[in-house]
Each structure stands twice: as structure tokens, then as C-alpha cells.
Amino acid sequence: MIVTINGKELWANPGDTILNVAQREGIKIPTLCYLKGFTPTGSCRICVVEVEGQRNLVPSCAQPVTEGMRVLTNSTKVRRARKTIIELLIANHPQDCLVCVRNGNCELQDLASEYGVRDYRYTGERRMNKKDIASPSIERDPNKCILCGRCVRVCHETQNVGAIDLARRGFSSYVTPAMDSSLNTSPCVYCGQCITVCPVGALTEKSHEKLVWEAINDPNRIVIAQTAPSVRVALGEEFGMEPGSIVTGKMTAALRRMGVDMVFDTNFGADLTIMEEGAELISRLKNGGKIPLLTSCSPGWVKYVETFYPDLLEHVSTCKSPQEMTGAIIKSFYAQKMNIDPAKIFVVSVMPCTAKKFESQRPELGFNYPDVDAVLTTREMARMIKNSGIDFHKLPDDHFDDPLGESTGAGAIFGATGGVMEAALRTAHFFLTGKEMNDIEFSPIRGLDGVRRATVFINDIELHVAAVSGLKNIDSFLDDIRSGKSEFAFIEVMACPGGCINGGGQPLPADPEKVKKRAEAIYEIDRATARRCSHQNSSIQKLYQEFLGEPNSHKSHELLHTHFVSREIQ
């Protein structure tokens, strides 16, 4: 069909909205509540346009096009309406932009600048709701909320958790967990996907920056940092670099200049996870253990299964996540080797994930001491670098410290959905056959689709495997396990769509194209690494020879495995 926008005739498909057509043709219409791929609500009204024959302005995100429709997206009436809406939003918004964590990266702030808002024309009563700071991972400030509903839709439609929703009506409306409770007592899995879509500062990570600075400045502390695979392909974005830029060396150098004593690689822990998880899978296959084996690297996913499917916890791998394994080895093997009192070691993880903050505080994770003492998101790491006066662009490339700085390509691909599965298959093949896989790039599991299935043949063993990201996609698999219909031997689950490259702690705003480039960079690191299978890591081999014995040994279970608890809400 033909529609006319701003005097230009354009082709539109049945079912297109005005906003769809405008975006496709490069016509900018501002939005706040709109999220691509989600059911439009038209609640913010920022995207209003004029349609010939319509008395009132209409929200372009929710208005389907019709044959012959004539639209104006930038008339005087439209611009005035948008500016008034922005002014009304600001009138009910805290005037604390200079001290807000989203200062300079706020969609409301950007719109106010774009539409020339220079004073406060509207004054009056404001909503006054208490802050929610009880969660170990996420802080919520309802007074900054502009009621766009993005967080609600992501929590319900993408993650299938439904921890928050809109409550009350009119001026009293606000977003809250059920019964006006805290996120801490809700089914929230702390994935942080709500943060990635929030246009303002109403949802933020719980900052550990102060904890880390205090540890760095304490002469009695030995501060050891570890960095996740997906941080090195996203951190550069915080300094204006192209998405997918690999900044491993600069990241390591920045941590040292901030005052960290040692820098290790969480990819080492990823290789260690594969050794343990691969051995666990083979043991279950040979000895009649619970199949399918479900991965346990994603703490948001683990909390999800603890909350909604606690009867299936025996299917979840007992392996700790790479972050926790690395922390455990630092405070045991490394401390012993260097003759350091583990009580003096402060382990800082730099992660793409807000749920890792929750994970680090789980009482099950730690032998005599917590495996990890503080967790910084990619965003927090960037803020600390800036706070230190470090010119990130001019940093020379540095390297990780030994022995927990060695890693393989398999450890790197943990950052993308399907990576854990692919890394595990590389090593499981070696464990079962004594030979390396001919083609170690397992393309059926790669990609950003929410569900990918494949069949793998290792000798005479046929394995059905799957990689799932985004929690709404796992329920059908779990229901099949409950009913005894599952055909799978191994299922990787990541809470965040696309995996850690799209984690709740990554640079904002979230953008599918940026996520895609981060994934490409992850696989580039894998291809450029000399050793691409976890069992080839010489430091891992030495660790088993000197300390752990063998995968799934008593010592390994003592330090590298854990248990999970039912969190079912009655």
C-alpha cells in the first residue's frame, strides 16, 4: 500500500505502523515507551504525529497505516505537543541530573535538549515513593520512573518472570513488585534486563565501586581482579570506541593503574568449568545420572530454576560459575602457592552481569571465605577508569598475570550464547575419544536466536543438545523434562538474550547491532587463540597435577562445586 509521510509517497506493508514505515525510511520520530519486537502501548505519547482526517494526534508506534494515509511527523502542532509532554515528564522528575548515574546517557535528558526545554514551566505535586535498595543487584528509584513500561514488558515478555508491574492509576501510578514489596523478596532473578531498557535512572545496578576503592586503598588488602570474556568486547563502547572493539590489553592496563595488585582472567575459570562440567556430563551419561544436564554458569538462570522449577534442581550442573571457580582457586591454590593469607585477598570480578553481584553473596559459594568479594559491571568499571583520570585510548596493551591468566579460545566463547555448549563439546569429544574434534567451530549452536538445537555424534554416542537464551524460551524444555519427554542430553541456558554479551551490566543503551558485533569479536578472539580447547590449557593441566587431582575429584567438589536451594514462592 502507499502512504504519504511529510509529502513523500512511501510503500508500506500490511500490519506496518506509522513508526515502522518512518524508521525504515530514515524519518526520525522520537520514542520513549516503544521497544522493537514488543507489543506497542502508545503510553508515553512522545511519538505522536498528525494524520489527515484525524481530530487528535495519534501515537505512531501503535497506529497501523492504511491505504492513502497522509502523515505529518514534524508539524508545529506535533513539535509543540512533544515539547509539552517532555516538560510534563520533567515536572514530575527529580531535578538531580548532575548527580544521576545516567547523566549524559539519559533519553529524557536528550529529548529535553533536542526539543529546546530551557525552563520549568509546570510545577505542582510530585510522586514521592520510597527507593528500593534491598536487592543485592538492582536498585529501583520510583521517583525517576517515567512510566514508559519498558521494564515491565521485558520482565514479562522476554524473561517470563513478572517480578514488576504497573500499580494504581492516574497520578498515583508506579512500577513495583507485587504487594509493594522489594525486588529482594520478589521472584526477580537480578538479570538486569530491566536496566538495559530503562530510558532514565529509575533502575540501576547496586554499585560496588566504593567497596573496591576501599579495598584498593587498604594497605592490608591484596586486591586481585578477574575479568569476564564479554567485558573485553564491550568496555571500549564506554569510551567511544566501535562496538566489538577488543580491548583486553587496555582493560588489564587500566586495572593496574587503578591500583589493583594482580589481574587474572575469568576465561581461566571458564576453561576450568568446562573440565568439571564435561566430566560431570560424561559421568551422568555413563552412570545413569539425571539427564539432561543443565548448565549453571548464569546466576540469573539458576535463580529462575530455583524459584519456578525447584523440582528440577537435580538436573542443574553442580559446577560453580567461572567467576566463582576463579575466586575459589585464587583463595586456595594461588594463596597457598604464594604463601598469602586468604583472609587478606580481596577478589574483584568485572562482569557483564548484575546477577553476579547476587551470586557472589550466596552463602553456598565459598569454602572458608567468599569466593568473590565484589562485582563490578562493565559500566562501573568504566566509571572507575574515568574517575582515576586514565586516558583509556592512550593506554598501552598489558597482559594478565600467571598462572590464572592463561586461557583458551573455548574460555572466550563463554561470552556468547551457545559458547558454553560449544566449549563443552570440544572437550567432551576429547574425553570420550582421546582425539581432538576435526572441526571445533560448532555452527549449529552459534547465533543470537533464543533457541538452537543440534545433534552430535561422538563415537557411537548420539547426543541431542540445545542452547537457550532469554528465560521465556526455557519453559517448554523444562516442562518436557518434568513430563519425561525430553530428548536432550545437555542444555545450555543463559538468562540474557544473546548471552553475556547482552548482560544487564553492559554499556547502555542496549542495541541488537552492538550485541551482534560483540559476538563477532568473541569468536574472533577464539580464532586468534593458539589453544582453542579447555583441556589444552597448560595452567589448567598443572593445576590438576599439583592441586586438584582430576576433574570431579573430592578436592574439585570441595572447591569448585556447589548445591542449589528451592526459592519457590508459596
Fill in the keyword field for this structure.
single chain, 570 residues, alpha/beta, Ubiquitin-like (UB roll), Alpha-Beta Plaits, Rossmann fold, 3 domains, five-stranded mixed sheet, four-stranded parallel sheet, 18 helices, 17 strands, 13% strand, globular
Structure description:
The protein has helices spanning 18-24, 76-91, 107-114, 150-158, 193-197, 209-216, 248-258, 266-287, 299-308, 322-338, 355-360, 378-387, 409-412, 419-433, 475-483, 512-528, 538-548, 554-560, and strands spanning 2-5, 8-11, 48-51, 58-59, 70-72, 138-140, 165-167, 174-176, 203-205, 222-227, 262-265, 293-294, 345-351, 374-377, 451-458, 461-469, 490-494. Helix 15 (475-483) links the parallel strand 16 (461-469) and strand 17 (490-494). The radius of gyration is 25 Å and the shape is globular. The strands form five sheets. Strands 2-1-5-3-4 form a five-stranded mixed beta sheet, sandwiched between helices. The protein has a four-stranded parallel beta sheet with strand order 11-10-13-14, sandwiched between helices. A four-stranded mixed beta sheet has the order 12-17-16-15, covered by helices on one side. The protein is α/β, with parallel strands linked by helices. The protein has three domains: 2-89, Roll (Ubiquitin-like (UB roll)); 127-205, Alpha-Beta Plaits (2-Layer Sandwich); 210-560, Rossmann fold.
